[in-house]
Amino acid sequence: MILCFDIGGSAIKSAYAYSPDDVRPQDRVPTPGTDFDAFIRVLNDAIAAAPVLPERVAISIAGVVDPDTGAARVANIPCLNGRKLHADLEQALGLPVDLANDADCFALAEATVGAGRGHEVVMGVILGTGIGGGVVVRGQLLNLAGLSGEWGHGPVAQRVLGNPEITLPAFPCGCGITGCLDAVCGARGLEMLHSHLHPAESRDTHAIIAGWQAGDAPAARTIAIWIELLAGPLAMVQNLLGAGAMPVGGGLSNATGLVAALDQAVRAQTLRRIDRPLLVPAQCRIEPGLVGAAVLGLSRSAAEPAE
User: Fold this and answer.
1) Which helix (H) or strand (E) element contains residue 69?
2) Segment 211-227, tens digit of pLDDT
3) Terminal Cα-to-Cα distance of the chain (whole angstroms)
4) Taking the complete model, does pTM exceed 0.85, yes or no?
5) Contacts of 224 (CB under 8 A, 6+ apart)
6) C-alpha torsion sign, points 23, 24, 28, 29
């Protein structure tokens, strides 16, 4: 049995995993974000409460680990930020630890038991508070550093677009770069985009999408620009990877028709014209962070020689 954790800034979720399609969610407890000792106690308590001693611990976390130094960058959990997290966790827990970025775990879950099942290359796409993703090739993550599949960052956001044509400013991103898709196409970015296009009104993401679905002209204009911003970069990613499927998760993916509209725009710009949906709603029925961590841990356990 693998003990899995999905660790975010507000909560730590756990599960017991026996196979990729037998992942049993357990507890959800608040994340001790500023106290490393308290953070470790939560994980050790879960190990102690398990019905048998886990073979290993597999963790999905909202952060990245520098592949050269081993230092973690976990902005929303200050007690982990800057630590050599993998080594520190193995020492504190006394078990082998597998650690991956939450977007990578989402991609692993979808490639294994979700909308990407059966495809050689799967690109998991996150459209939520931020823009991100992960890449799975032949059932394995492209790498474990959490620094691949991050198509939302880089100065690539188109500035002249739309019909009638407009020129957008290069919006600053929280990563320090100007012109990232993450800055203008995530949930807060969509609101900023709408305010820029329609200065006389302010709407939240839900109202913008509801307006688009109802045929409201200002909202339709905003969503058309949003789709144009995303479609070109996603088409380029597809030309690079040749993904068989791009499962889409995150809060924005729940909007009826939005993924389908984006999919049509992307497929119209790829070199290989695909006559079936490429971007599809995610299908993993259990928390994808837990399932992805389970897939990672189970694969590592199977790869290690028996003692």
Assistant:
1) none
2) 999 999 999 999 999 99
3) 16
4) yes
5) 162
6) negative
- Residue with the two structure tokens 């203008």: 184
At residue 220, φ and ψ (nearest 5 deg) are -60, -40
The domain ranges of the chain are 2-101, 115-281
Distances (CA, A) of 47 to 27, 52, 87, 135, 269: 12, 9, 18, 30, 49
The answer as to CATH 3.30.420.40 being correct for domain 2-101 is: yes
Query: Residue 233, preceding bond cis, omega within 30 degrees?
Result: no
Task: Evaluate whether 2-101 and 115-281 have a shared fold.
Answer: yes
| Cα–Cα distance measured from residue 5 to residue 53, given in angstroms and rounded to the nearest whole number | 15
Contact in structure between 60 and 290 (CB atoms under 8 Å): yes
Residue with tokens 């820029």: 196
Q: What is the sign of the dihedral through the CA atoms of 221, 225, 230 and 236?
A: positive
* Side chain identity, residue 93: L
Q: Bridge-partner residues for 17, per DSSP? A: 2, 23
What is the per-residue pLDDT across 230-277, written as a single tens digit (0 to 9) for each?
A: 999 999 999 999 999 999 999 999 998 999 999 999 999 999 989 999
| Structure tokens that stand for 186 in this block | 């995530």
Per-residue tokens: 165 = 């044509």
Q: Which CATH class is domain 115-281?
A: alpha beta
Q: How far apart are CA 131 and CA 140, in angstroms?
A: 22
Task: Name the token pair of 23.
Answer: 């992942």
Instruction: Please report, for residues 62, 93, 94, 307, the alpha-carbon distance to residue 53 in angstroms, rounded to integers and kept in the order given.
Output: 26, 12, 11, 16
* Token pair recorded at residue 121: 């290359």
Alpha-carbon Rg for the chain in angstroms: 20
Which positions ≥6 away from 279 have C-beta within 8 Å?
125, 234, 246, 248, 259, 262, 263, 266
- Is residue 163 classed exposed, middle or buried when 0-12, 13-18 and 19+ CB atoms within 10 A define those classes? exposed
